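Question (not urgent): is this output format expected?
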Amino acid sequence: MIESVIYNHLNHHLNSGALDLFYSFYHRSGCKKITQLSFEKTKLGFSEQGTIYLNKLVFDLPIHYFLYVILHEIAHQFQYKKYGKDYVLDLYMHPDKYDKFWEVERVADRIAIKKTIEILKKDNKKSSVKLISIYNTETKKDYIKKYLKDLNTEINENN
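Got this back:
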C-alpha cells in the first residue's frame, strides 16, 4: 500500500511507462507499505522490513531526488528480503560492524541511482543534475559512524 499523497506525487510527475517501472521494482522488493512522517530534517527516509517511511520534506525536492530517496529505501527492502531483518538489525546494534553497514548503504545507493536514471529515461525526462552517491565521502562515512554509535548508546540506555 502506498499512501495516496505519495501515489499522487508519482502520478503527477511520471508517465505510465515510468510508473510501471517504479511499481514493478516496488512490488518485487516485497515492501508492503510506503508512508510519510515528519521526522528529523537530516533523514529523508528509512526502512524496516516491509515498510518505508518518507520524511514529508521529500515532497519539496525535485522529482529526481524524490525518486532517488524512495528507490534507495526500496533497495533496502531487497536487502531485507535477501538477508533478513536480523542481519540489518545486527549491523545497527553493533557499531563494530560499521564497515558492513556502510556497504549495505552504498549498495542501496548504487541501486537507487541506477533505477532513478532508468525511470527518468523511460519518462523522457532529462535532468541537468547528475545523481552522485551520497555515500562516497569520508565526511558522510564519519557522520554515519557517529550516528550508529549514538543510536547504539541510546538503545542501551533505554533498554
